Amino acid sequence: MHIAHFTNTYYPVVSGVVRSVSVFRQALTDLGHNVFIFSQHASDYEDEEPFIFRYPAFELPIHNNFPVTIPFSAFVEKLLPSLKLDVIHAHHPIVLGQTAARRAEELHLPLVFTFHTRYRDYSHYVSLNQTLVKEVIDRWLGVYMQQCQHIVVPSESIRNLLADLYGVHERVTVLPTGIDLRPYQIETNREQFRRQKRWGSDRVLISVGRLAKEKNWHTLLDAAAEVIRTLPNTRLVILGEGEERASLEKQARQLGVAEQLELPGAIPFADIPHHLFAADLFCFASITETQGLVTLEAMAADLPVVAVAASGTSDVITHEVEGLLTENNAQALAQAVIRVLRNDSLRDSLRTAAQAKAQSYDIQRQAERLTAVYQQAIIDKKVNRSVQVDKHKPLLKGTWYERLGLEQNPFRFITLG
């Protein structure tokens, strides 16, 4: 098949969505498919992969110069028909996601959409009435999904969310991103790496993710401080970068654990497995995950997990099997970490189960399932079947944007392509 992925962000941006697009692209290519990526322009970055096509973009001086794509390219418009595409796969409902929907309609191609993100949980980035913002988000998503032949969700919890919020029950497939296990089959000299990092004999708690508010890092840091007070030779390492760095550094100073907190920034993905293999425990407090992808990668590195019981994470961790799940508070999280660190047999049991669970998420298996989704979407397009949304759930009659005529296309003022 010839497959086009439209994503608002791709390398050099580092995120869960980028990882998902990248690993699926490689796995689909290994299966013999041609995969084309359409994403944002990236200054001073040279693609190592073939078939990456870039739209113009500019960087906002916030969130580490986050790129904003301008969804118009005369070159791409001329190129698309010549690619003889079989399916278009969108990874966002706005900007290039809207461009993907329009191009799919123009070329009479099926549109597949991956619901990567709990979009409502990011409403705080818009400084308006939060109830209104969440309502608009729901409206946008409801309209967008009706244009699709199929929705991919990364976990059962997100499938349930679509059913509860939007009344979407059919043409939805639970398909976790999966992980490329090859980087976790490397030979790693654990002790040498720990010496290089100057970790010595300390117990190392590690976590991975953007330093963003919704990741709940402050709760994790409070928990780590409690662990350090109980078990002094402990440190917390968070791999990632973001706007919460200064706030976390200030919190660490206030808690008296600044020397035990390491924030090495956004390190190359190839280096992450080495960090994970050298750590003792993976900790995670995020409550906005759609899939526990970074948790799975830690499990592949033979790490037991202690995490807040929340969507995404709870989909890949069974309490007392691969890890411990806790309430969303620092005290509960700290006590669970201390319990695992003090109990060698529990830690070994969790580690063994975690490694076995990670093996079941091999990306090649998931890519084969995604191929089946594409084949079904092609059939559904031919008979004009699309995702059905319960209009009584996401649609907001009588609201200000209906009076502005946005009920048909709520994206009309923010897209160009």
Please render the helix and strand layout as text.
Blueprint: E1 2-6, H1 16-30, E2 34-40, E3 52-55, E4 57-59, E5 67-69, H2 74-82, E6 87-90, H3 96-106, E7 111-114, H4 130-145, E8 150-153, H5 156-166, E9 172-174, H6 190-197, E10 203-208, H7 217-230, E11 234-239, H8 245-255, E12 261-265, H9 272-278, E13 281-284, H10 293-300, E14 305-308, H11 313-316, E15 323-326, H12 330-342, H13 344-359, H14 363-382, H15 400-403
Descriptive account of the structure:
α7 crosses α12 and α10 crosses α13. This protein has two domains: 2-178 and 364-403, Glycogen Phosphorylase B (Rossmann fold, 3-Layer(aba) Sandwich), CATH 3.40.50.2000; 188-359, Glycogen Phosphorylase B (Rossmann fold), CATH 3.40.50. The protein has helices at residues 16-30, 74-82, 96-106, 130-145, 156-166, 190-197, 217-230, 245-255, 272-278, 293-300, 313-316, 330-342, 344-359, 363-382, 400-403, and strands at residues 2-6, 34-40, 52-55, 57-59, 67-69, 87-90, 111-114, 150-153, 172-174, 203-208, 234-239, 261-265, 281-284, 305-308, 323-326. The two termini are 25 Å apart. By secondary structure, the protein is α/β, with parallel strands linked by helices. The strands form three sheets. A seven-stranded parallel sheet has the order 3-2-1-6-7-8-9, with helices on both faces.
